[in-house]
Amino acid sequence: WWSPATTTRVAAATVEALTPVKERLFPFGRGLCHAYWAPNLYPLYNVVDRVGCKLLGRCVPTSVNTKGLVTLSDATDGVDLSKLPTHSVLPSVNPLAALVAVCVTFGLLVACFHRRRNRPLLLFASSVAFFAASWHVHEKAMLTVLLPAVVGCVAPTTAPHRIGALWRWTRCLALLCTLTIAPLFPGV
Question: What are the TM regions of this chain, as residue ranges (predicted)?
Fold first, then answer.
């Protein structure tokens, strides 16, 4: 009942079913920034490019500074947005550069926290690194930073004298999470 043709059909169906999952997990064709920006490194990068564009008076036609962050123009429908130049003054960020930025940010944060041997703190540092420098981060991803901070507050390995400071940071993160997802609420 099982033949090579059945194996081929199952493999093709599996690849076909997993392709949308891969495109959602790695949205490289959707551009660097999301319409509702996430408070990570790239909106700051875009602001610096925007200021440079205005000061120098040169803007690339497909730039995020002239056509918006997500929908560049009708002429680019179906075009992989990651292949278009998106910045006028600063170099455009491609997926490989975003991966390098994640690795550098992750390395710096782990280097800061490695002596403490506190796993919840290292989990928090890694989630901050991935949120801060990943490609096409949604505003809802801020919750991935908040949850490890909450775990750090209640972890038995957290020193009692550090819980107060960690709790203050967690409250600030919770406020930032609320502010970043506020545009998703109807009527806001």
Answer: 93-113, 120-137
